[in-house]
Amino acid sequence: MAWNLTVGAPNGGWNSKTQLQAWANSKFILVGDNLIFVYEPSEDNVLQVSKEDFYACESKNPIQAHNKSPTAINLPTLGLIYFISGKPGRCNQGVKVWINVLKPPLL
């Protein structure tokens, strides 16, 4: 069963006030789940980027770009996936998160 996970919820969101990586590290996020990003489009957007671009806060070559809130992103594969805000300065202010997508348990 897939879950919809609102990034940063329940006490925050896709913004610089939320400890986004701490939020992600506290979750078991599985293949098939959906991440829901809620944000103010004038302040943020959501870019899926490479690992290198994540750590450099580089927004020029996104894998995917989303500008409409809420943004729902399905997670179809295992492994690490990286997201940043592409708005100027926002990634460096902490509006970024990497997600470790896990295999669902066998039932």
UniProtKB/TrEMBL annotation:
GO cellular component, one term: plasma membrane
Keywords of this entry: Disulfide bond, Glycoprotein
Domain Phytocyanin: 3-103
Top-level taxon of the source organism: Eukaryota
Molecular functions (GO terms): electron transfer activity
Disulfide bond recorded as keyword: yes
InterPro entries: Cupredoxin, Phytocyanin-like, Phytocyanin_dom
Name of this protein: Phytocyanin domain-containing protein
Species name: Jatropha curcas
